[in-house]
Amino acid sequence: MKQHLAQINIAQAKADLESEVMSGFVNRLDEINQLAEQSPGFVWRLTSEEDEISISDAIDSNKIINLSLWDDINSLENYVYKTAHVELLRDRKSWFNNIINVQFALWWVPAGHIPSIDEGYAKLDLIEKQGSSADAFSFAKPF
User: Fold this and answer.
1) Spatial distance between the Cα atoms of 131 and 25, rounded to a whole number of angstroms
2) What is the residue range of 101's domain?
């Protein structure tokens, strides 16, 4: 059975998305999302059209959630580290506060399954409690 790699990452913005502090990040969102969608191995990403809390969590308006599906780990790694996306990673301390909890998780899902934000949070929690496993892992310890 074909599987896709699901990924979730969360970030705590230093300020409201409309603020000057966040403008450098917000001004590049469309470009970076388009880059992801055009990257080899990209399958799907949660968009604000599908779910209003994909950009900011309803509980905490400064929490940004990214949820996507990829064909494999290499495709996602190439997008994250070998495209203009890496520029946002490099500058992330300008826009985001450090989060104590785990903020990134990967896991395999059957092709056709669209993961929910709750499912993603459960995977973050799993890594937090048990470390990387076949059920939830990171780039550093892939399964």
Assistant:
1) 30
2) 3-130
CATH code (residue 121) = 3.30.70.100
Which two tokens mark 84?
């203009």
Dist CA 58 CA 51 (whole Å): 11
Per-residue 3-state assignment (H helix, E strand, C coil) for 5-66 = EEEEEEEEECCCCCCCCCHHHHCCHHHHHHHHHHCCCEEEECCCCCCHHHCCCCCCCCEEEE
Taking only the tens place, the pLDDT of each residue in 88-116 is 889 899 999 887 788 999 999 999 999 99
User: Which residues fall within 8 angstroms of residue 105, CB to CB, at 6 or more apart?
Assistant: 7, 8, 9, 120, 123, 124, 126, 127, 136, 137, 138
User: For residue 77, is it within any domain?
Assistant: yes
